[in-house]
Amino acid sequence: MTFLPVIDTAPLVLTLIALAAYLLGSVPFGLVITRLLGLGDLRAIGSGNIGATNVLRTGNKPAAAATLLLDAGKGAIAVLIARAIAGEDAAQLAGFAAFLGHLYPIWLGFKGGKGVATFLGTLLALAWPIGLLCCATWLVTVALTRISSASALVASASAALWCWIIGPQSLIILALALTALVWLRHASNIKRLLAGAEPRVGK
């Protein structure tokens, strides 16, 4: 039993794939979309985050939906291209690199989003049953709590558990790493949750 994929791709190839995936993940689609639509600087709106939840605070639902799809898509595309070029080890590395790019984009001084959409898109491409189960976990949690951040935390934490239960178990280490980063980026949300001050969806 192994919690990592077999690494058989040449180091140089892995390095180039990781770099390309990071640059793709660094594209701040939320910021680009809101500027193209004349909605202002997303970093000066609401929480200042560049993700779909904050785009929704502009009142433009299509823009928020487009941001959600594109942020998820960049993780998925990085995985699929890397898998086609090299294999599963490259796919996992590309997913991780694209996720890091979203969280710490070079174009924005390494100040990016919280990664929930990219997390889900990456998992859907790596192992679609795990991705769907995480999406379902998010939906159930948000229906029960009406708190987006709580849903993100629970859904991300469930990823490694789903990998353990249904496989592939070679995805567990990556799932744990992605989850740790999601929780790190939600540190301020966790403080508000503990204080009972986190806003609910629609408020």
Short overview:
Helices cover 69% and strands 0% of the residues. The protein is built from ten helices and no strands.
Considering the chains and any ligands shown, give keywords for the structure.
203 residues; mainly alpha; 10 helices; 69% helix; globular
Structural description of this entry:
There is one protein chain. Helix 1 packs antiparallel against helix 4 (about 60-85), helix 5 packs antiparallel against helix 6 and helix 5 (about 90-105) packs parallel to helix 9 (about 170-185). The protein is built from ten helices and no strands. With about 200 residues, it is mainly α.
How are the SSEs placed, and which strands pair?
Layout: H1 11-25, H2 29-36, H3 52-56, H4 61-85, H5 88-103, H6 116-126, H7 128-145, H8 148-166, H9 172-185, H10 187-195
Helix pairs in contact: 1-4, 1-5, 2-4, 4-5, 4-6, 5-6, 5-9, 6-7, 7-8, 8-9
